[in-house]
Amino acid sequence: MESKDYLKDISEIKNLMNKSSRFISLSGLSGIMAGVYALVGAAYAYWLVANSGREYLILDGTIFRLVLLDLVLVALFSVITGIILTTKKAKKHGEKIWDATSRRLVINFLIPLLVGGLYILIILSNQKYGQTGGLMLIFYGLALVNASKYSIGDIRYLGFIEIVLGLAAALYPGLGFWFWVLGFGVMHIIYGTWMYFKYDMN
Amino acid sequence: MSIINNINKVFDHRIRLGIMSILMVNEYADFNMLKELLDVTDGNLASHVKALEAAEYVEVEKQFIGRKPNTRYSTSKLGRAEFKKHIEALEKLIRKS
Questions:
Q1: In chain B, what residues touch A6 (CB-CB under 8 Å)?
Q2: Would the pLDDT of A163 be above 90?
Q3: In chain A, which residue's Cα lies nearest the Cα of B83?
């Protein structure tokens, strides 16, 4: 009988350690949706460029501005969907959406992401846009790896995959677009589905 | 019987174990955070924190956030070491049976 009590103690210790340091209400469904938005956005960008009469993008053109707007919309929709679905999940579990754990998660996620975003904007304004896709993947991957300490640990693997895809995109700049589609579209859907079945089903 | 010796009497209570678990993985926690996570009353939590404080396993830092007094708790070096020993002893006991 006694050892059963100890077992209960250990499991409660683990539970408290997780609950107090990690925000685990992230919704898998929001990952899937982010992937879908990315694919739709990428398809639109592809269509824009294909119909522009040029094979590539030039800065300061209307097409470039539309692609940029497209990108911002994909990010915006992903974030909004993520917040809505995660709030829903947190409510269901009786957890707060904005507490010490989620605050820490957001801050640690944003540090690499904002640095990367600024860096990309700076080199874009210097007319160097061949590496944009790869850089987005790399910094996003680093942000995920950094954030994984404060959330579901599995996010780490998605981060590594994004980093590898980003480096591959740097090796093959001509394929940057397709690596971006793979990283932000396909991987989000695969990962989101996996998370959904692992954590959200029960 | 060395295993029994490592079972620490100070930790021999659910709430104290809970307080230590939270503080082990967080730089610090304030009173309300502990209260919410452990779902206990003020008086109950205060008495258990005091016991850990008396054993010098937990350090207390009193400060003001604006005008509100705020008490922050963190583990001491001794507390971390003792907690680890305690957990190892628990695990050994479980494996034995």
A1: 90, 93-94
A2: yes
A3: A13
pLDDT of residue A183: 97
Angle, alpha carbons A152-A156-A161 (nearest 5°): 140
Dist. CA A169–CA A181, nearest whole Å: 11
Residue A140 has pLDDT above 50, yes or no: yes
Alpha-carbon distance A9 to nearest alpha carbon in chain B (angstroms)? 7
ipTM of this model?
Answer: 0.80
Contacts of A9 in chain B (CB under 8 A): 14, 17, 90
Query: Rounded distance, CA A80 to CA A72, Å?
Result: 12
CA atoms within 13 A on the CB side of A123: 14
Interacting residues of A44 by C-beta distance below 8 A, sequence separation 6+: A70
CA distance B38 to B49: 12
Residues of B in Cβ contact (< 8 Å) with A2? 93, 97
CA distance A110 to chain B (A): 20
Nearest CB among B14, B26, B96 relative to A21 is that of B26
pLDDT by residue (tens digit) across B57-77?
Answer: 999 999 888 888 889 999 999
Query: Which single residue is written with the structure tokens 């001509």?
Result: A174
Residue A42: other Cβ atoms inside 10 A? 21
> Could you tell me if A12 lies within 8 Å of chain B, comparing CB atoms?
yes
Q: Where are the beta strands (DSSP E) in B1-97?
A: 29-30, 58-65, 68-75
A·B CB contacts under 8 A: 47
Amino acid at A5: D
Contact A10 B91 (CB under 8 A): yes
Q: Report the alpha-carbon distance of residue A148 to residue B8 in Å, rounded.
A: 33
